[in-house]
Amino acid sequence: MSEFIALMGQYPVIFISVCFIFAATIGSFLNVVIHRLPVMMKREWQAECNQYLQEYHPDIVKDVSLKRLEKPLDSFPERYNLVVPNSCCPKCNAAIKPWHNLPILGWCMLKGKCAQCQQAISVRYPVIELLTGLMVAVLAWHFGPTSQFLFASLLTFVLIALTGIDLDEMLLPDQLTMPLLWLGLLINLQGVFTSPTDAIIGAIAGYMSLWSVFWLFKLVTGKEGMGYGDFKLLAVFGAWLGWQMLPLIILLSSLVGAVVGIALILSKKLNQGNPIPFGPYIAMAGWIALIWGNDIVNWYLGTFL
């Protein structure tokens, strides 16, 4: 293994290229996670609600459709998880052939249409595959063949899945955020990205900072300005990068969120008062801080202080 790592260090172009191809393949799986995990969660919630109603309110009608799903829950196969059933066209349910599942290339070969029914396949699938490959390639260039690169890549995979789910469902699942939080604390026991003390303080400060803003906003306006998933995601970055990076992440995410929100309102794609997911902006800012955070902070301190 050490010889392989040394070889990759000698040929960075090969290392970056291999990482891009592997990450793009993972991106194909992330598309599955983004689509299926919310359905799995809603099925679980509905099962729990049905169990409660059957036990305590058997007279109430239990079959309630969920409007935010493209199809009713009952239309999905009984065995439905991240592995089963195999991928198929969402329109005609035709099985997707293995070579059509090739990241990026498969969508291009099909010209963005189902081979069976010729219905359009969302461009989001190759975009996520390409984005995953490019982001991991940047990590490979920045960190090289190190343990930091491996953990940063894992963090990136989950952040992409969280971003896609939050954009679709306004939801940041605990099934993804909480393992990231504990993993960040665990790896920093060895000081992979920061010290154990800074990681623990960062996790607490990350959660409490947005939690405080949430309750202050709610007391003043009577409305909820963000979800608890946002608190947990910022706690993740505190655990991974330390408390020192939290001000930068909050500043960057707020700035990008404000610019995008104003742009959407001006383009009339978003009405004032309608909620927008904040998780993608936290994820974007945290990923930037992961790579260039120290450089940005040092530049700021050297320029303005």
Concise synopsis of the structure shown:
The protein is mainly alpha-helical and 305 residues long. The protein has 10 helices and no strands.
Distance between the termini: 45 Å
Count up the domains.
2
* Residue share in β-strands: under 5%
SS summary, helix count: 10
Uncertain stretches of 5 or more adjacent residues = 62-69
Helix and strand element order: HHHHHHHHHH
Shape assignment: globular
**Gyration radius, to the nearest Å?**
22 Å
Topology:
Layout (H helix, E strand, L loop, with lengths): L1 H9 L1 H45 L48 H5 L14 H20 L3 H23 L4 H14 L8 H26 L6 H14 L4 H21 L12 H26 L1
Helix pairs in contact: 2-4, 2-5, 4-5, 5-6, 5-10, 6-8, 7-8, 8-10, 9-10
Question: If you had to describe this structure to a student in words, what would you say it looks like?
Answer:
This protein is mainly alpha-helical. It folds into two domains: 2-109, no CATH class; 146-304, no CATH class. The chain has ten helices and no strands. Helix 7 runs antiparallel to helix 8 (228-241) and helix 9 (246-266) crosses helix 10. 29% of the residues are buried. Residues 62-69 have low confidence and may be disordered.
